TrEMBL record:
Record InterPro entries: FKBP4/5/8-like, TPR-like_helical_dom_sf
Source species: Coemansia erecta
Region named Disordered: 144-168
Top-rank taxon, per record: Eukaryota
Pfam family of the protein (one): TPR_19
UniProt name for this protein: TPR-like protein
Length: 168
């Protein structure tokens, strides 16, 4: 049995509603977890990243980071690149060692067109996992975006030179 176009659209819409519901639940979890700690300074990661070790991160910050990274993943899939970047950056503020949050930040950067930032972070991630298929897929996304940008730039430049010739 094959799915018709209208059935597909209805199922996709229902799936996206669940994704939005997941975002609400993640947001509620963040509010709840942040409320567990009366001392706001206890959730702040020390300022000197050079001396920071993974063991310095509190369990609460690790939990917050996981939730924020999951929120970033939802936003990536909903094509909300700005929110994906914000959530991933928040996750990394809570736990700079969260590799999934770094990967979500890469995805957000690619989707918003910040390809240089994405490549730099991806280089960092690939040091530990050079053969990761997800990283390779994002490399292909970067290459595609760069090719599209180059093609657009060539068209714009060609149009500019055509206008200059017509003005003569």
């Amino acid at each position: 049995m094959t799915t018709t176009s209208s059935e597909f659209d209805a199922k996709r819409e229902q799936g996206m509603k669940h994704k939005d519901a997941a975002l609400r639940e993640y947001y509620n979890a963040l509010l709840f977890l942040r409320g567990l700690n009366n001392d706001v300074m206890a959730t702040v990661v020390p300022k000197d990243p050079e001396n920071l070790e993974e063991g310095d991160i509190t369990e609460l910050n690790k939990d917050l980071s996981v939730i924020q990274a999951n929120m970033a993943a939802c936003h990536v899939r909903l094509n909300r690149s700005t929110r994906a970047v914000q959530c991933a950056q928040d996750a990394l503020k809570s736990n700079p060692f969260n590799k999934k949050a770094k990967f979500r930040l890469v995805q957000g950067y690619i989707r918003e067109g910040s390809l240089t930032k994405a490549e730099k972070l991806l280089d960092e991630l690939e040091k530990d996992s050079p053969n990761d298929a997800a990283f390779a897929a994002e490399r292909r996304n970067i290459a595609t975006k760069e090719a599209e940008a180059e093609k657009k730039q060539r068209r714009e430049l060609a149009g500019m030179f055509d206008r200059a010739r017509n003005d003569d």
